[in-house]
# Entry
Amino acid sequence: MRKLMLTTLCVLFLFSLVYNQKATYVGAKNCKGCHIGPKNSNVYEKWEKAVHAKAFETLKAKGEEKNPRCLKCHVTGFNDGGYKLGSTNARDFEGVQCESCHGPGSLYKDIRHMKDELAAVENGLMIPIDALCIKCHNKNSPTFKGFDYQTYVKKITHAYRGIKTY
# Structure
């Protein structure tokens, strides 16, 4: 049943890409309002304390904060409507934020969609799978030490109002 649901969600997501307007990145601060506090499963607080939130800081510590090869995985939406070197709003997209895993949020961030997982997916919300993570967690990364999706996804798993969104 879960596989059928995921397949359906993937099909709806692909359909939405073809027929809907292009979604844009909004940044984690725009997600915070609805994803903060115990009522909302402390999703924002969990992310804020996790290593993904600090990904850009690791680049700065190594002097690599302008290296495009590093930025593609350490910021959100690199050169794709999110983080852009030298832009006035670049700070809004530093780190691996919500939209790195769930896709640009402009179309699904509306509360009507967020209360209905199917509506959110129809409007661009991605439910992450291992292939998404492997785009950054792979042998091309200079710090790669192996990656087991099942082990690591447990460290970032979160739910929003009872819906597991990884």
In short: The chain has ten helices and two strands.
